[in-house]
Structures are given as C-alpha cells and as structure tokens.
Amino acid sequence: MFINCHSFHSLRYGTLSIEGLVKQAHESGARELVLTDINTVTGIYDFKKACENVGIQPIPGVEVRKEGKLLYVGIARRFSGIGEINKVITDHNCNDIELCETAPEFNEVFVVYPMSNIPPALKDHEFIGVRIDELNFLIRPEYEKYIPKMVVLHPVTFSTEEEYKLHKILRAIDNNTLLSKLTKKEVCRKSEYFISEQQIVKAFQRYPEIVKNTRNILKACNFEFDFEKVKNKPCYTRSKESDVKLLKRLAYLGLKKRYGKDHEIAKERVDKELKVIDDLNFCSYFLITWDIVRYSNRMGFMHVGRGSGANSIVSYCIGITDICPLELDLYFERFLNLNRKSPPDFDIDWSWQNRDTILEYIFTRYGKNHVAFCGTNVEFKYKSIFREVGKAFGLPKEELDDLTSRSMETHDPNSVVQLVQKYGKLLEKFPNQRSMHACGILISEEPITHYTALEMPPKGFPIVQFDMNVAEDIKLEKLDILSQRGLGTINDTVNLIKKTRGIDVDIRDTGISKDEEKANEYLAIGRTIGCFYIESPAMRGLLRRLKCDNYRILVAASSIIRPGVAQSGMMREYIFRHNHPDQFQYFHSVFEEHLKETYGIMVYQEDVIKIAQYFGGLTLADGDILRRAMSGKGRSIKKLQEVKANFFKSCRDKGHSLELTAEAYRQIESFAGYSFCKAHSASYAVESYQSLYLKVYYPLEFMVSVINNQGGFYRTEVYIHEAKMSGGKIQTPCVNASEYQTTLKGTDIYLGLMLLEGLETRIAHGIVEERERNGSYQSLENFIKRIPIGIETIQILIFIGAFRFTGKPKNELLVEARLLLVNFKPEQRGLMLIEEPVQEFKLPPLKREHFEDAFDEIELIGFPVSCSPFDLLQTKYRGSVFVKDLLQYHKRQVKMLAYLIARKHVPTKKGTMYFGTWIDVNGDYFDTAHFPDSLKEYDFQGGGCYLLLGTVEVDFHFPTITIHKMAKMPMIPDPRYAYDKERQYDIHRQIKEDVSMTFRKPYPQAHEIGLPRHHFQ
C-alpha cells in the first residue's frame, strides 16, 4: 500500500535511511514497497537489496517535483520504466527542459497525480492518489467520476515526532529560512509515517475499488535487475573475438619495443595475463584505456598510469603505464585474478592543464549519452551541521561562528544550543548534496539514463546520481581520470628547457627517470623541494634517514610514509632495519623468503596478500577481501571476520603456534586502510624521480615551472627562495618584461603579474596582450593611454616596481600618475595617429628609505624580493650554529636564528606538538620539534624570524632540534610610515607561514611498536 516513500536521498526532505525505511516497512507488515525519492533514483539499487533481504518486493519510482510542488509520482512497471523517468529528470537537469505539470508519454510507468494536480484527462496508466485525510472530498460530485481511477496515496517521510522536527529543520535549511517562518506548503504532513496495511484498508473500507487499484499496480510491477551483468561497453571493436586479437597484437608489439625480441620471461607473463584478461572479459576495459592514452600521446600530453593497474605487464607493453613489473617483481594477482569479483582499477593522471581536453575526448569518442562522472554524496559535516541547524533556529552569525570553532563539550548549555546539538547529531551521515566524484568516469553500453538520471554540476560534466560503491555493485566499472600539478610542472619544465636552451629532454627515458648519479646524491640528502611527492619535511627527513640513493629505496619510501604504515610503527622499524641489517632476525622463514627486499616488514598491499597466502594459507579470494579492507573499500566487517577466522584455522592446520599466528595477523591488521600497492608507489617514485632529475640539471627552468603550477607543499616564497639558491636573479613584476605567469630570461626570473594579489586577472592579461599587439610601453603616460585602469591599480604596479624601466623613483611616478589621471578622458585611450610627446613633470627630489621596496613587496606579494627577511631584523645577530654544521652537534644545545617556513600540527598523548621547518641565514633548511611543555611558554607567534634554543638529535643521519625556548625577533619599523607610528608595524602581520593540521592518533614510540626482531617458534 506504500507507493510513495522517501528516504534521506530526498535531499533535505526525508529523514529515513534506506535500511531504516525497509526495516520499518517490514515491521509494519508491508509485502511491497515503492521508493519514490524526490527527482532522484540515488537509492534504488541499495533499496532492492535491502528489500529482498527481508522478503519485501521492491519497486522503484520517482516523485517528480517542480520548485517544491508535487507534480506526480512515477512508478516503474519494469526496470525500463526507470529509464523513461530518468530521461525526463535528465532533460530537466542537463538540458534546461522544464518539467511539465502532466507526465509525458510513458510506456512502462504508472503515474499517480496528487489531488492538487489532476490533469484534464487520464490515460490508462495514470491514476489519482488519495490520502486518508482527503477521503471526505470524495463525496463531492466533481471527484465522484475519478473514483475508478484512484489509488491509495500514503506518503512516508519520517517515523517519529522527533524525526518530524528533523524534517522541518531540513526544510528550513533547504529554503534558507527560520523554522518559525516555514509554511505548510514547505513541509510534509504530520501523517507521513508507516501505519499497518490493515489501518489503510479500514480507512478506505467505503472505497474497496481504490484499494484494489493500488494492489493491482503493486502486482503489475517487477524490479528485474541483474547485479552480476557488466554494464560497461562489452567490446571496444565490433566483437569480443576481435578485441582479443587487437589486445594481443598491441601487447606483442609493446613486448618487442619494451623488452626486445627474445625475452622469454616477459613473453610468458604477457601470455598468462592475456588469458586472465580474456577469461574475465576485461579486453575492452584495457583497450578503451589504451585508446584514451593513445589520444593523449597524439596530443603531446604526459600521463602517469598508476594504481594496481601498473602491476600488469600488458598495461606496460601497451603504454598505459611506465612501470616494468618484472624489474620490481610486481604481483599481477593484486590487480587481476580469476577469484577476483570486483573490477580492476586503472588510475591515470594528467596535468591539471590537460585533463579537460582528455575528458572532452572521452565524452565525444564514446558518446555523451553513454558517459558520465560518478557522483558522490556530500554528507553534513560537523561545522556545516551546527551552522545550518543553528541558522534554522535563528542563532546570530557571531554565535554560529563560536559554535563551529569549538568542540561540542565546550558549548554553552542553553536550551537553543542543546537543541542545535541534539538535531545536529541526528543529521550526522545524512547526505546534504550530490557532487562530482573527483575522477571516476563511467562508460556504459546502454545509454547511461537506462540506470540513472543525470545532474549537471557547475563544472560542466554530467554526473550520475549514485556513488562509486553503487556503481561497483551494479557492475558499472569506472575509469579514474585524475589531474595533478606535479605532471604540469614536469611538462612545463621540459617545454621551457626546449625554449631557453634548445634541448629536447626525453623525460621518459628510464636512464634519467630512475637511476642517475647526481640525482641519487640529491635524493640521499633530501634536497627535493619542489619535487612531486617527496618535498614535504617528513618525506625529506625519511629520505635522509634512509640515505635513499636509488629508485628501489624511493619506491619503498613512497609507501612507508603513508599514515597507516607510520601509525603501526612499521616506518620506524623499517628505518632501523635498513640502517642495521645485521641487528635483526626474520620473524619467520616465509617473511624472509617473500619480504626480503623490505627486511621482513610488510610495506605494500602485495606483501600482506603474500603473507596471507604463503604464511596463512588463505585463498586468493580471501586475500582479495583483505586487500579491499586495506584499501578502505571493504564494506563488510562480517566478511573480514570470516577471513580472520579462516586465517587462524589455516595457520593452526599448518602447525603455527597461536602466539606466532596472532603476531602475524596483528601486523596484517595494522595496515588497514592506508598502505599503497607496490605498483602505485613505483609510479609515484618515477614521477618524483623525473621532477628531481629536472631540478638537478635545470634548476631555474624547474623552479619557474613549479611557481607557475602553483607549487606543491609550500607557498610560492619558498620556491622563489629555491630559485635564488640555484643562481636565479629574482625580478619583481614589470609591465614591459613580465608575462601573466613567471618567466625566465637567462638567469633573470621575472615574477608573473598573477602573483600581485590586488591585480585583477583580466587587467593582468590585458597588459600582456596590449604589449604583444602594439609594442613595449614607452612611459607611464603611454601605459595609461593604452590600458583601462584606475589609480588604485596604477598604485599597485608602481609600488611593486613595474615601471622601473622609466628610471623614475616610485614617489615621483605616483605623483605623475595622479596628475595624468586628473584630466584624463577614457575616450582618449588607445594609440594616437600621431603620438604626442610625453609630458614631462618637474618635481622636487623625493627621498626614499632603503627598505621601502621590501615592505612594498611584502604588502603586494606577501614576501620580500629585494632583500632577505633576515635583512629586515633589528638585530645583526645571525645565530651561533648553522645548518651545515648540525650533524656535529648531536645531543648538544645550540642557539640558531631562523626564518619560519612551515609548521605541522601533530597530536600526542600529552597534547598538541608541532614540527617546524626553517631556513638559516645561508638559506639551508632544517627541522625542529616543539613539544607541548615548551609550547605552553614558547608558542609560535606567526610568520617571521625566531631565535631558537634547543638540543640537536641526530636520528639516522637526520638532525632535528628539540626546542626548549624560542622568541620571535622584532623587525625594523616600516619606513614608509616613519611619520605614522600607529601603522609602522601593520605590514609585519602579513609575513606568512604554512600551517598544516593533522588529526591522526599519535605515532607509537619505539618501545610501543613491539615488532619482533627475533625468530618466532
């Protein structure tokens, strides 16, 4: 009897989860249930499974609304009916086709109109829904004729009085209004909860025909759907047979190119993989990915194929990845095996500048009706919950700001705040809005509206209404098309080298992208600022602790830096064993045989699968469940518990002691959710090495490209410092020499106009375009005639030194600009037929202090360029010890003067601590540790230079200073405000620092790890 049920996927309306809705329907005795969320089919697949688990017949539908008004309810007679409704919703969402008051011509959809929207005529499949509280209307003559076409309409939206209030809060949030101002039309009726079928039949006892019509509709519906059938394109070519032939031909061509003619081991591996790919029907998946990569290569784009797909030698041979699985002993079964039920995953990165071109190709090549982005449900988050619910209750902005900035325990206990907390907690895990998955692309054989309606987010690519988990459940496999700035940096550097030096760098040449002597030297000392994935303070510290001087160690480092590995203590233990390989025994012979490369420590996901298989005797299918749990993709705790039980039973059968088994499983478990697969680490390591090679041999081109790709871990100032340390002469923006982006001319690096925070993008581009069209600017007056600009923007350019080519001081240019703009008429702008001579202004000499330029630079781009931050200190003291000597000071106290680059918040059992990154006066980097006790008295005071007192701790070749005391050093007053004492220290507050927050559990100490260094019996 329930043909109009809402879940919380009716965003900001329904209050019931799919599980909650089905559970209550089951308890009320319902035998059939229709899910009709508002303008969406997000929940229908989870709904089908949940219903069938409790013996209810599921029926999918949609409640079609327009601007809050209920038009009709569409109920799918067959699954194809959902496709018909999806097209209507998609046309509205993506093509701006207005939703009609009446339903279109449906073939497999029952339509139920509310009594508030009865159409002039009803078709055979169309009905009118009557609520219990509307039955008294049926005595009216105008409704009597409709009784044979009426059905029971008892909507379900909530379950309790509390949930009804929650529904009203959701409606207030959706309408951006106060609870007290909600109208009846904006909320559901108070009767929209489950009652028993007997109560419904009793209410309609005078109209048995209406009950019969309702039952007939329910009986006529059938939600037939095959979850096991793959919904993607089954063939790239015209048939599966020709797909197999094409993939084999491409793999053999690549085999010859990658390995030469007679490499039997590689050929055996290719043949083995091709058979598995064929048996699992994944030929088209490989070929579609190959086709996209082929287009990318044709366009001259650089890509990185990573993730578990890089375990495949076939993907290496056909050019999807650049990682040789034989070289690194990569485990194909981690990617594909005959026991694996879930689809494989190719993750492919492009530069952030090229990704949209790749997406356009995919949508065009495979048809806009067959391609869409995966959706994702954005849930109400802690801060947004309190802000949104608080607004609905009418709390002022100041109180909302306070609520969201403090933890719940510290909130005032007044009645309104308690209500906000109460209903806020109920909203946790509720979907708030649908958004676009960052990278998942779906390509279907049938039009994609066969399975879902589409939505069009602001980014301009359509999205499906369900997330990646549902896509996987219904066997609609995704391609991950990602973008990143690291590739943009590499690509731009290679292009810039060609432009500045005329050298073609083949960055994919493994001789330079995996093993190069000088690059290895940089790697071992952590000289990697600007390099993809290996520039953070933690990573540079790890590289130094490992003395990482080759690609293989870099691959391991890329994985052990991950939170889960570090959290379990494996990172600390790996560092110890790497530096002391003679001071431990292997835990068990299986660990020695299969994990020798990583000193018996599980570093990669493959390691866990190998231990589960060879030590624990688990099947590959059980190993795959473990893998999914480790990837954060396992959604069944019950299955994981079964695998654990199998592991212990199998180990007992193999003769392992309980103590030995428990320790092995503890190590496996510690990896859950965080470790990389080895191929993923290897792909990252190649890209890291490529960027490192460019930094080593072409440092200026590299740092300019890093700046233009908006950096990585650090702010622009740090990369400019790196460029300066590499011999670059940094020039502030100039209207005659600068482009929108930063440029390199010889050793001169001209900062781009884009770095000027107050300069509009449109004007910055206009300055460059006008100069390219009509030549350099001759004077300030000539510039004003050619560029539509006001005095505020002129001042920004003058203060940054953009008119220094005139040879005039800034004060004089400022006066000149004001005089020129007083009588200037915009219609005079543009080049004259006969250029009038430049008007010369006779001004008295205007004195400028030495450091005024530096303070102009801090104000306009955030940091000084014409001098060092140390030059602006009141003290001439520069420290007693410098970075170059720190290794000699182990366990000794040092006093240093340093400029703060970044600090990282880290929780500990005793409270918050920070790790700081600094440079000394020589420009060298070092790291500090600030424990909670010292921070109580000597906390950070924002960006700038500090005097530091601490003890040096050298941990495996890497010095860190544990800080006991520190004080921020005063800078000279701003000379530009020599006559305004109140403003002399305003700009000092703009000195920046990078602060990164982490909320993980504290890393364990050495004594807490407990990883055995001896052989277990």
UniProtKB/TrEMBL annotation:
Residues 5-68 form the Polymerase/histidinol phosphatase N-terminal domain. It catalyses: DNA(n) + a 2'-deoxyribonucleoside 5'-triphosphate = DNA(n+1) + diphosphate. Its EC number is 2.7.7.7. Pfam families: DNA_pol3_alpha, DNA_pol3_finger, HHH_6, PHP. GO terms for molecular function: 3'-5' exonuclease activity; DNA-directed DNA polymerase activity. Keywords: DNA replication, DNA-directed DNA polymerase, Nucleotidyltransferase, Transferase. The keyword Membrane does not apply. One of its GO terms (biological process) is DNA replication. PANTHER family: DNA POLYMERASE III SUBUNIT ALPHA (PTHR32294). This is DNA-directed DNA polymerase.
